[in-house]
User: Fold Carboxymuconolactone decarboxylase-like domain-containing protein from Paraburkholderia phytofirmans.
Amino acid sequence: MSKFQVHTIGSAPEQSKPVLQQLQQTFGFIPNIAGAMAESPMLIGAFINLFQKVHSGTFTEAQIQTLLLTNAVTNACTWAVAFHTALALNEGLTPADVEALRAGRAPADRQHAALSTLTKTAILRRGHLDERDISAFLEAGFRRDQVLEVLAVAAASTITNYVGSITQPPLEAQFQVHAWTA
Assistant:
């Protein structure tokens, strides 16, 4: 497989630098996966716009991390699983629920289980959800518009997960404790 450079602000294409600077401010560092994405200014620009929309939607950050971690596991992206494990724990998901998600199982929390189940089903069935899938999600306390919002989160995840699988960026030291294999 080809090696992709993990760019820094200094080495990135000029149009990618503002996004890397923004991520530096958000996280306090530039995630290696974003450094790999920076190879394509178009991709990283599209990603950051979607990323911002996802994090300003109706889901809490803990719910977003449930979706992102489920998607990373479903798409078998080792970098993203480790990264979102750390973020999910920081957002208050229980270690047991995080371990369930990492194992491909639904967490104990009812709403997080509904989120995880819906996004995993949407990915595995390529968006072909039936009324039972949607009803189970709604019965957990969500709204119909949020079914579609789950798809926006899945789209952001797909970008990250596919970039991780293609470029295989190194896992940062602070996430090594959460390393995962499919």
Notes: The chain has nine helices and no strands. The chain has a mean pLDDT of 95.
